[in-house]
Amino acid sequence: MLKPDAVHRGLIGRLVARFEDKGLKIVAMKMARIDRSIAERHYADHKGKPFYEPLLRFVTAGPTVFLVLEGMNAVAVVRKMMGATFGPDAEPGTVRGDFGMSKRFNLVHGS
Q: Quick check: is 109 catalytic?
């Protein structure tokens, strides 16, 4: 999933190219805005934490690109490519290490 900050910053093409360059195939892709009720269910584990409301506002603020990727060890490859959850902790060469701006604006989600 390419979060609203990736879309807003015009990084979709660059990020998709990174996945393809690693041999992953895009079998489905859709751009849509996440409804608040869906975001609430997705982040239910964080309810009551100080960052919960800002997180919901962020993920519902603009369009998100949803990708289904396929390939050898796709889950492990994508997780490694994304890097540590928080951009400042992510290794250079990873999506978050190269483009992440803060803990909240970390561009991607994989599951």
A: yes
One-character DSSP codes across 65-111: EEEEEESTTHHHHHHHHH-SSSGGGSPTTSHHHHH--SSS---B---
**Do residues 51 and 104 lie in contact, with contact meaning Cβ atoms separated by under 8 Å?**
yes
**Measured between alpha carbons, how far is 23 from 25 in angstroms, rounded to an integer?**
6
**Nearest 5 degrees, angle CA 49-CA 96-CA 31?**
80
CA distance 104 to 102: 5
Q: What is the pTM of this model?
A: 0.89
Domains detected in the chain? 4-99 (3.30.70.141)
Q: Name the helix (H) or strand (E) containing 50.
A: none
Out of 8, 42, 46, 109, the active site residue is 109
18-74 pLDDT, tens per residue? 999 999 999 999 999 999 999 999 999 999 999 999 999 999 999 999 999 999 999
